[in-house]
Every structure is written in structure tokens, then in C-alpha cells.
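Researcher: I'd like a candidate sequence for this fold, 666 residues long. If you have to choose between options at a position, lean toward the conservative one.
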């Protein structure tokens, strides 16, 4: 097709924003446009129409035409297996490895069992460390792990100034996840200064300290909170470095940001762009020279599901697309089986290929800020940046992240946001495909690796360590001890504990967990009783009248592990009651149109109760009929927007399935 010769309607090309508004209002027939606005987390909203920004310049995101770095996690506790994985990842297209140790809050199901130089040598066998980038995910001992990596590379003939390492340390995220660190904030600041001095004296490239939004996002924080808290963390680390006499022009070089990328495509693009905006605003307010922010993004752990995990491939693909469009410098895709255990070679290959296809076949990296000019993206980016900046100011008034953690403000705010999002999931307004929407009752066997994460080792040696200093003498002493065969666990045990920092911890929480817990209870019941939890679909009237609502009800109850029976066109009410008795179900759901409910529901309710139904619900919500139906035995209604979790839990009780305290607390 010759695109140049296509003639568009004149009124389409010349239509103004006001013309579009007028057209929309005509279609709405008296309803205002505001009625179509959608509120989203953080007090923001999505408008039905946006003004185009045809003159907007692209934001300065990732370096133009440069692809983002493809990062793969290395977290297999068996070193030989981790080495094989690492070589496969690098040969398969990854150009950065994230070393994940068991002490990391992001360890998930594993963690590398590297304690000594000999361990690291086995891990890096065949790897060219000077040709790739590294990220460290090591929890409290990031600086010691950096020293271990450096000394190992020296054994391989690679000097420290040939290494590029990002995200070495983030003690704030350790405190947030665990609720405790074995140092005062003052001493943590001294350790960051020591880390900067060590990296400077050794010429190590990369950003050492990270502001990590994943610990907030995965605990339930919204985007406003995630960005505001990252910015406050970055400011805290730069202030700590400034106290250590790091020149102002070098402060920004030592810090980086880490964001979660979710399946909310536009939300993720906007979040990445807004992070750049508030970073620029911070540098301007602090009168610091501009330095592009190194932005790493990882696909959201919170969005992933155990049930029907293949859907995680779609989620991570959308998230990766959005991270790339949003200008991330590096991206890590969590393998689709991550919620189930350590991913095998197939899951890791899919994670790599997701990025490779987007970079090399879709050429996403060829255009700098391709979302620029979109009215929706530009206006929502500005709104999010402003809201995040306001939240950042709120946290700073509390004394920054350390003060807001100690006072409980961050915990309170994040938990409030988490409850709001969990409510959207529980009511079906935020559906999770394969879990709360269109669930499959079939067991899908997915292979994961056997976990052997508890291989940290015992303390065998204690050494004298100096105090941290601005020239890195503490880490230099750690490095020297490592060359003599001391392990990381020995280093940790030898550190002097001066003070302690505490807060209410924020635990990782996947959105699907409440539904998955119910499914697990249903399967446990079936294993012990030999029969699944059942719901009988009492369909009234002809097929055309009940099919839609019966299908909805079947999917609704399958989200809790209930197997549906009935659901056909019955010859008579007596025929339906006979089928119900045979089904051995205790929960019944009436399914039909409102018209049929008015004619037949009361009689059906009475006979079903006599026949032994413990709980009877109705698919739909005919408000004018509910008083009469309730008087005749109706226990509840199910419809789009009702509390699915509450209904499913009630049905479990009616079906005789015991709920543990854990489920009751959901």
C-alpha cells in the first residue's frame, strides 16, 4: 500500500481538541466528560481525552540509539550450576550479571553460596568479567562482596579499573525488609563513605549506592510513593557522601535508581519518565551539576502468579516493553516460574529472549523517548512527577527515609496503598488473568530447580577490622582478609556492632497470594476428602437466558478452586433439584436473566434449601428483587465488582472446607 497517497478525511486532520470534546459529549448524551475519568493510585486520574503535545521535546533518557543492558540474575546455590547458567546467559545475549546472595531481601528462592575467593573463581570460570557489567544484590554485605569480586578478578589478571559494577549497597532497603540493621544510621553513613573511597582508589566504574523502589513496590506502594521514596533515598546517600568530603561534582556519579516495571504499560513508561524529571528537579534545587541518572528496572515480583504461570510471560513482556520505551539503562526480567522456585534453563532463556526480541527485532532502542508528544503520556508524567515531588517533600520533613521509617510514616502510607490495591484485586476491578479471572482448575506442571539456599556456612575465623574511613580502609582490610582465605560469613561476624536501627518491616507481597492460598486449601481438601469443593450452577430458563451469567459464575468460583456442576438447560425445577442432589454440592448459584429470576427464583430457592443447600447465591444484582429473594433464602449475590475473596471464603465454610488462620487473615 502506498501510504503517501492515502487521503484522510479533512475533518479528521483538522479536528481540534475542542472538536473531539464536542464529539464525545454528543456520544455521551448529556453525561459530562468527567464521568469518564478514572481515578488511579496516589490521588491521580486518567482523563478520557488529552491535548496533544506536538511541540514537546523528548526527555533525556537512555543514551540515544543505545540498547539497554540485558541483565540476568545468578542465584543458584550450587556453584557449578550457577556457572553453567551464567555462561548460557552470556552466550545467549545477556551483557550484565546480577550476583544474588542469600542475605539479600531479593533472594526470593535462592542465593549464591560464594563465601571465599575459591568459590568466586569457580563461579566465574570461563567468564570475562572485564567485558560485562555486574550488579550486586547482597543485602547487608554488598561492600564485602564487591571486595570479593575485585580480589577474584585480580587472580584472573583483571585490574579493578576494568570492572563496571552497579547497585553495590542499599542498607535502607535491608532495613525496610527486615526491620533491623546492626548499625546506627551514623555508622551506615561512614560505611558508604568507606565504600566510595575504596571504589575511587581502585578506579572501579559504576554507581555504588542505589535508591531501590522494588522494596516499596513489592510491599504494595503506589508509583507516587515509590518515586518519592527513591528520591529521598538518593538524597540521603548523597548527603552521606558529602559528609565524607566527596566533591559536589562527583556525588551524583555514585548513586543510581532501581524501579519495578509492571504490566501497566503506560503506567510503567510514565513512572520511568517521571523519575528522570524529579531527579533533574532535585539536582537543580540542590544546585548540583546535571548528571544523567543510571536507571535500572526489574519486572515486578508483585504482579507475578503461581497459578497458570505461563501468563507471567505476557506480563513480563509488557513490562519490559514499557521499561525500554521509558528509557531504562538496564532491565532484568524475572523468569516466569520465579514464584514457584529457582528457574531452570528454559525459563531463563525465555527471560533473555523477551529482551532480545524487543531490542534486536522490534528495534525499540532506536528512538529516544518515543512516547514524547503523546498527550496522555506527557500530562500523566507531569502529574506523577509533581505528586512524587510532594511526597518526597513530606518524607524530607519527617527527617528523610531514616526518620520516616523510625516514625512509622512510610509503613503506614505503604500499607494503606497496599490495602487499596488488594481491594481492587479482591473485587475483580484489577483482574489477574489465570488466577482471579479465567482461572484453570487443571494442574500445570512447571519445572523448577531444587532449592538448596541454606549454604551460608559457619563462622571459622574472626579478624580485627578497622573503622570505616573516607579512603576505604575498612574494605581494603576486608579485601586483604579475603586473600588469606577468610569468608564473607567471617567478615560479617567480625564487624563491630555500634548501635542498631529498627523500623516496622515491609514484607514482599504478591497480588495473587490470597487467591492462591484459597486454591491451595481447595486442593488440600480434595486430597484428604477425595472430593473437590463444588458449586452447583442452578440455571433457570432456556440457554440463551442463563449462559452469560453461568459462565461468569463458573469462572468466579473457579478462582477459589470450586468445581462447577449443573449449568445446563433443565427440563423442569424437579429435574434441577434431582441433579443438585446427585452433585453432592453444598453451595448453589442461581444463574439466569432478571426476567427469569422474577418468575422462577423464589420457587427454586425454597426447594434448594429443602434439598440441603447450605449457601445459595445469585449471579447478577437485581436490586428490586433482592428483598423478596433474601426473605426466601438467598444468601448473597455475585457480580462484577463484588468482593470475590469474601464470597469465596464464605463458600468454603459452607462447603465444609476448613480455613486456616492464615486464610482468615487475608
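Model: Candidate sequence:
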Amino acid at each position: 500500500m502506498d501510504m503517501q497517497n492515502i487521503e484522510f478525511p479533512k475533518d479528521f486532520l483538522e479536528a481540534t481538541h475542542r472538536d473531539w470534546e464536542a464529539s464525545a459529549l454528543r456520544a455521551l448524551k448529556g453525561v459530562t466528560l468527567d464521568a469518564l475519568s478514572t481515578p488511579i493510585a496516589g490521588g491521580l486520574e486518567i482523563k478520557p481525552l488529552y491535548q496533544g503535545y506536538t511541540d514537546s521535546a523528548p526527555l533525556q533518557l537512555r543514551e540515544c540509539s543505545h540498547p539497554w543492558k540485558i541483565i540476568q540474575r545468578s542465584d543458584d546455590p550450587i556453584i557449578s550450576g550457577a556457572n553453567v547458567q551464567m555462561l548460557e546467559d552470556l552466550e545467549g545475549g545477556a551483557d550484565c550479571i546480577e550476583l544474588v546472595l542469600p542475605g539479600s531481601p531479593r533472594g526470593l528462592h535462592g542465593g549464591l553460596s560464594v563465601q571465599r575467593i575459591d568459590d568466586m573463581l569457580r563461579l566465574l570460570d570461563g567468564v570475562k568479567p572485564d567485558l560485562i557489567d555486574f550488579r550486586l544484590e547482597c543485602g547487608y554485605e554488598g561492600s564485602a562482596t564487591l571486595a570479593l569480586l575485585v580480589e577474584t578478578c585480580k587472580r584472573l589478571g583483571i585490574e579493578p579499573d576494568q570492572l563496571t559494577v552497579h547497585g553495590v549497597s542499599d542498607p535502607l532497603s535491608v532495613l525496610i525488609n527486615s526491620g533491623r540493621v546492626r548499625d546506627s544510621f551514623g555508622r551506615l553513613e561512614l560505611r558508604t563513605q568507606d565504600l566510595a573511597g575504596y571504589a575511587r582508589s581502585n578506579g572501579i566504574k559504576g554507581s555504588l549506592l542505589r535508591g531501590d523502589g522494588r522494596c516499596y513496590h513489592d510491599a504494595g506502594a503506589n508509583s507516587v510513593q515509590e518515586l518519592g521514596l527513591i528520591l529521598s533515598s538518593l538524597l540521603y546517600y548523597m548527603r552521606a557522601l558529602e559528609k565524607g568530603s566527596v566533591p559536589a561534582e562527583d556525588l551524583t556519579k555514585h548513586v543510581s535508581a532501581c524501579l519495578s516495571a509492571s504490566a501497566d504499560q503506560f503506567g510503567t513508561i510514565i513512572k520511568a519518565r517521571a523519575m528522570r524529571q524529579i531527579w533533574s528537579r532535585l539536582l537543580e534545587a540542590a544546585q548540583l551539576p546535571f548528571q544523567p541518572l543510571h536507571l535500572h528496572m526489574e519486572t515486578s515480583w508483585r504482579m507475578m502468579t503461581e497459578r497458570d504461570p505461563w501468563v507471567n510471560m505476557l506480563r513480563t513482556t509488557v513490562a519490559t516493553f514499557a521499561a525500554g520505551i521509558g528509557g531504562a539503562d538496564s532491565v532484568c526480567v524475572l523468569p516466569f516460574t520465579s514464584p514457584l522456585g529457582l528457574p531452570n534453563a528454559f525459563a531463563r532463556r525465555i527471560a533473555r529472549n523477551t529482551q532480545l526480541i524487543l531490542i534486536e527485532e522490534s528495534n525499540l532502542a532506536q528512538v529516544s523517548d518515543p512516547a514524547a508528544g503523546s498527550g496522555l503520556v506527557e500530562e500523566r508524567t507531569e502529574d506523577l512527577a509533581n505528586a512524587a515531588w510532594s511526597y518526597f517533600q513530606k518524607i524530607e520533613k519527617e527527617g528523610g527515609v531514616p526518620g520516616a521509617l523510625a516514625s512509622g510514616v512510610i509503613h503506614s502510607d505503604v500499607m494503606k496503598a497496599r490495602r487499596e490495591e488488594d481491594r481492587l484485586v479482591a473485587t475483580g476491578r484489577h483482574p489477574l488473568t489465570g488466577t482471579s479471572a479465567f482461572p484453570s482448575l487443571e494442574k500445570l506442571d512447571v519445572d523448577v530447580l531444587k532449592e538448596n539456599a541454606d549454604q551460608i556456612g559457619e563462622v571459622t575465623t574472626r579478624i580485627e577490622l578497622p573503622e570505616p574511613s573516607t579512603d576505604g580502609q575498612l574494605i581494603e582490610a576486608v579485601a586483604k582478609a579475603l586473600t588469606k582465605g577468610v569468608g564473607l560469613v567471617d567478615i560479617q561476624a567480625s564487624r563491630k556492632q555500634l548501635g542498631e536501627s529498627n523500623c516496622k518491616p515491609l514484607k514482599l507481597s504478591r497480588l495473587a497470594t490470597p487467591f492462591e492460598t484459597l486454591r491451595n486449601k481447595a486442593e488440600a481438601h480434595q486430597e484428604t476428602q477425595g472430593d473437590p469443593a463444588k458449586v452447583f450452577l442452578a440455571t433457570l430458563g432456556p440457554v440463551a437466558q442463563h449462559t452469560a451469567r453461568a459462565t461468569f459464575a463458573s469462572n468466579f468460583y473457579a478462582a477459589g478452586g470450586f468445581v462447577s456442576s449443573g449449568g445446563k438447560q433443565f427440563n423442569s425445577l424437579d429435574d434441577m433439584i434431582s441433579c443438585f442432589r446427585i452433585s453432592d454440592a453444598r453451595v448453589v448459584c442461581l444463574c439466569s436473566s432478571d426476567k427469569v429470576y422474577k418468575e422462577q427464583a423464589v420457587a427454586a430457592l425454597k426447594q434448594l434449601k429443602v434439598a440441603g443447600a447450605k449457601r445459595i447465591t445469585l449471579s447478577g444484582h437485581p436490586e428490586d428483587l433482592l428483598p423478596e429473594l433474601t426473605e426466601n433464602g438467598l444468601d448473597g449475590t455475585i457480580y462484577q465488582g463484588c468482593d470475590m475473596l469474601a464470597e469465596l471464603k464464605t463458600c468454603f465454610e459452607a462447603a465444609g472446607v476448613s480455613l486456616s488462620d492464615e486464610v482468615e487473615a487475608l
